[in-house]
Amino acid sequence: MKIIDISPLVRRITADNGGVFTGGGTNTYLVGHQEITVIDPGPASTEHVENIAKICGEDIKQILVTHTHNDHSPGAKLLHQRTAAPVMGMYPLHKEMQDPTFKTKKELKHGDEINEAEYTLKVIHTPGHASNHLCFLLEEEKLIFTGDHIMDGSTVVIAPPDGNMKQYIDSLELLKEIDLKYIAPGHGNVLENPHSVVDWIVGHRMYREKKVIDSITEASKATIDELIYSVYDDVDKNLYGIAKYSLEAHLNKLIEEDRVLKDHDNYFWKG
Fold it and tell me: Whole-model pTM?
C-alpha cells in the first residue's frame, strides 16, 4: 500500500488492478483529514477497501463515485459495509458494462455541492465516457477529480450506447469555463495546465473524426470493420477491438449532426 500526498488536502491510493483499460490501476482519492470524502473506491477488492479503511479510520464522511464502471464503483458497496459511510453518485441510463451493485443514498446532479469545514466539492456532470459520469471540483485548490473523463497517458474509450462522443466533446469544453490548476485523473498522475490538456484531447478527437469522414467519403459506403483499418492505421492492431467502440461513437456523433447516414451495417457520407 502506497499513500501519496498530492496536495495539502488530498491523498491518493491506487488499487492493484492495472491493465489495458486501467493503466497502472484505479486511483482512489481521500479529500480532507477530519471529515474525509473518498472518491472512487475502485473495484471489488477487499484488500484495497481495507487499505482505505485503515488510512481513514472512522473519519470517512461520504463516498463519491465518478461513474459506475466496474473498476471505479464496486468498492463503494464494500466500503459502505465496512464503515457505514453513505455512497453518492448518479445512476447510468444503460445497464451494459455497469456495476450492478451500485446503490446511492443521494443521486447527485450538476451543480450540487458537498460542504465540509475543510473544503467544498462541486459536482460537475460530464457525460460522454458514461452517461452518469461526474467530475468533482475541489474549490479550495482548483483541483478537479476527473475519473475517466480525462486520464493520464491515454485517451479514454467512448463505448455506446452509454458512451456518447458528442456529449464527451461538449463536456470537455465545459471544463474550459472553469478556473482550474490541476487534474487528478482516475488513472495515472496529476496533470497540470488543465485547459491545455483539454485542448489537446479535443484536437485529437477532431483529428480522428476527420479520418472517419475522409474514409467514408473515399469508400462511398463502409462498415465499422472496414473503417477501422484506415481510421486507426496509426494504432496497434491488437487494440482494434477496443478502438471499434470509439469509432462507433464517432459515427454516432456524425449521425446526430446529420452528416452521416446508416443503413444496416453500412455508413454513408451525407455531408
Answer: 0.96
